[in-house]
Amino acid sequence: MGGLQKKKFERGSATNYITRNRARKKLQLSLPDFRRLCILKGIYPHEPKHKKKVNKGSTAPRTFYLLKDIRFLLHEPIVGKFREYKIFVRKLKKAYGKTEWSAVERLRENKPTYKLDHIIKERYPTFIDALRDIDDALCMCFLFSTFARTGKCHVQTIQLCRRLTVEWMNYVIASRSLRKVFLSIKGIYYQAEVMGQLITWVVPYQFSHDHPVDVDYRVMATFTELYTTLLGFVSFRLYSSLNLVYPPKLDSNGESEPKEESEDDYAMNSESYLEKLSALSASLARVVSSADEEEAQLDQFPSEGEDMEKMEAREKELKQQEAQKKLFEGLKFYLNREVPRESLAFVIRCFGGQVSWDKSVCIGSTYDVTDETITHQIIDRPSVGKQYINRYYIQPQWLYDCVNAKILLPVEDYFLGGTLPPHLSPFVEEKEGDYVPPEKLKMMALQRGEKPEQEEEEEQEEDDNGDEEDDEEEVAEEKNLKKMEEQRSQGKSLHVKVTPGKLKVENKARLEQEEKAEEKRLAIMMMKKKEKYLYDKIMFGKKRKVREANKLAAKRKAHDDSEKAKKKKARK
Amino acid sequence: MAAARRLKRVAISQPGFLTLNPKVTPTDLVSSRRKRVNKNKKKNWNKYSDVQDVEEFLEDVRHQERTTGKGKSSRPLRIDLILQHDSLVAPPKDVLAYQKPNAKKLRRTAERAEKLAANGVVPRSKKRLLNRTVVDRTSKKTETEANNNPERDFYDIWGQETKDLGEPWYLQQTRKKLVKRPEKLNEKPSVLPAVEVIAPGGSYNPDFFSHQELLREAHEVELKKKKVEDKLERQLAYNKADTATEETILREQVEGLVEESEEEEEKDAPKEDGEEVAVGAIAVADKKTERQRKREKAEKMKEQQRLTERRQTEQQQQLFQLRSIKTSIKQQEETTQIRQKRRKAKEEAQKAQPRRLGKLKFQPQDMEVQLSDELAGSLRQLKPEGSVLMDRFKSLQKRNLIEPRERAKFKRRLKVKYVEKRAFKEIS
């Protein structure tokens, strides 16, 4: 035959995919470099639908990439930088080996570096795209900022992550966008609403430091590299949207200024600024100094397709949100030494409250324990030494529960030493018919505006009543049972009586007939379908005959009767 | 002889030496004749030559030179003689040194310079001076430009309007413009959200039912694991009674070897029957006769007729069976729809599953659950469970962003040979 035969695995899905090693060779990169490049550019391996076709008949597990993606990678300028870096390492090793220290210094000064700005611009062409992906970035940055600065990953990365996380927290405080907080056994989950996007991130506890061995740190470091760049640009944009100075500066016009003398105790001069910022106790400086801002009431125009009802609902929602943003306004908090300072300071400041802590804990404490105007003191110990009269001593869970409930909950449940009510997850949305824990019901009732004290009293009364009723019922039942037992034990007869029965005369002949009839019936039931069909036909025929006979007889009778009647008439 | 003389001389030169003759002193005895020295040797020049007078003279001359200018000789230095002009022709006059600029001209140039400066034009030399940038040798270039520099600057990457630096074709050919990113790459590889919040039972102070729910889930996971283990054990289990005892082993080994008459007879009889049966099966069939063939044909025809008649009657009867046909069709359609729905649901569920991207399958992490007695009463006593690092890593794998990999093992190319030291060989 001619040469136009179709060969297997030459077109279709087999040519769309390429294995990892082939791709690596095409790009002329080492495996870790290839992996880093794929992570930075956002190119992920694909699982083909028909593995046998793509793998040319074998089912060995291989990693496949789309060929078009790899071709796209060939145009990336960072690939050149990776190759330069490889050569730099080679030259450096040589210089070290020859102990040419001047050469080593010269090479180190001209180390090849690369920037990821163009990749960010390419992967996230608009700001909203970047905001959608910021969850992951935030989690990574918060995670890396808790790492110990031992040198396993670059210390600079950790510092950069710390700076970015502090900037983010300051932004959330300034824009009051925090909505939900959840304390779990793994870490603290936060949810904020930024420019219409719901952003969830998790922060590990400060005091947990077990580093699992089987995590690939290089991969995580590459992800962090990309995410730090992304988060930095997003932060810049967010700050400029609020008219704040970026990189953030503390507002020097604020009332509470940290004292100069105590600064030396906390940090070096170079780091003291970041530390002050990370204390989250001071407000940020604005680009245009805000004088008295008059909020003009905007005219309400219903948009197309909306009734007054929907608009009113929306207005109500907005009002609720505004009220929620000012939850802790006017309240002054003081944090004791054993509570997680950063998390609580963040949450308190997000809702307008003022917070301070002990001087020995961290820089930036604005007022002391002895301040008389403190309204709430957050304590986690079983008891506290000196108690001031006009402040509440509560456990930290109160703050988180208030944030989730969007109102100020009654403080009584959270006093020291008592068992706390359970911390419910705000991320759970119960549908109708699901189990709703009673605490949540109580909270929803509070939200609706029912007075808490009365409710409590009512509940108490109800509880008491319920208990009483239950008790009564139980008591009654018990009494009954006891009675019956007594009676039985005493040998008295209960309500049931035994009476003599009636005798039935049995007819033998009838019994025989009945037995026969039963047997017949059984036999009929056990017949096969065909046989039953025939039998039915036969019976039908028989019955027909009988019916005809009956008909004739009835006719005859009728005729006879009529004849008789005629005769009678004739006679008369 | 010389040695004796030397000894005598040494003895005489000692202090307190007494001579036998009172008139003769020790000095008379010592210095009688001067010793003859060889002055031709370098060693002896310094020792036996007296240069005091020469030294005095030279000292004198040096002193004179120090005090007066040139000293004795007042000749000019040679270098001065060389540098003299020895030509009788006078050197030419430097005309330019005598030229004084015209005051008017000077004034005019000054005014022009002022006017230009007022307009903002800077003379060329000044411009070059100003354009010289100061080389920043204090900060390291690589550190500031590195991607993870903690002090790095961020700018508005989305706000800037891209300027058209040149023709698009030119930019593309010179690789100044980046290639457009294919649209398919913007799709996320998984529908799962980036951060999955833990179930409400995972709160540090959970409410009873949700905690029980979480415990139940963890329990089910453990049950599954146990089931798999049990299955494996069952497959591997064997009955101890089946182990070969010595008797059975012996019988096996001896089988067929021991010959007894009874056994032979028994074996012969069943063998014959078997042969007969076998012979019967191989017998050749007789040829078919005409009659048989005709009969077969007639039967076939009848059969076919019957079938056609039946089909006709069925078709006619189908008219009366319309209702049942309708119901059966409806049922079929329902089943197909149910199957379609099931398949779609399966596909959706498959999308949420992590794909198999490499050699290893995705291993989900252990559930983070605290038992009832581990639950802390307060935030201070909380002992965190699970690590966020592991959680993030697994989440990346679950969302198909990276493939699951295990740590690279250390493989040796050449085998290692272990040799005992001689001392240890003696011991063991």
Instruction: Name the poorly predicted regions of chain A.
Output: 254-261, 290-296, 452-474
Structural class by helix and strand composition of chain A = alpha/beta
The biggest beta sheet of chain A reads: 4 strands, parallel
Sequence of secondary-structure elements of chain B: HHHHHHHHHHHHHHHHH
Distance between the termini of chain A: 120 Å
Largest sheet composition of chain B: none
Largest interface: A-B, 99 and 71 residues
Which value, in Å, is the CA radius of gyration of chain B? 62 Å
Q: How many beta-strand runs of chain B?
A: 0
Q: Which outline of chain A best applies?
A: extended
Enumerate the spans of chain B where pLDDT stays under 50 for 5 or more consecutive residues.
none
Helix count from the secondary structure assignment of chain B:
17
Q: Structural class of the helices, strands and pairings of chain B?
A: mainly alpha
Rounded average pLDDT of chain B:
85
Beta-strand share of residues of chain B = under 5%
**Largest sheet: spatial strand order of chain A:** 7-6-8-9
Succession of helices and strands of chain A: HEHHHEHHHHHHHEEEHHHHEHEEEHHHHH
Helical stretch count of chain A? Answer: 21
GO cellular component, one term (chain A): PeBoW complex
GO biological process, one term (chain A): maturation of LSU-rRNA from tricistronic rRNA transcript (SSU-rRNA, 5.8S rRNA, LSU-rRNA)
Protein name (chain A): Pescadillo homolog
Organism (chain A): Maylandia zebra
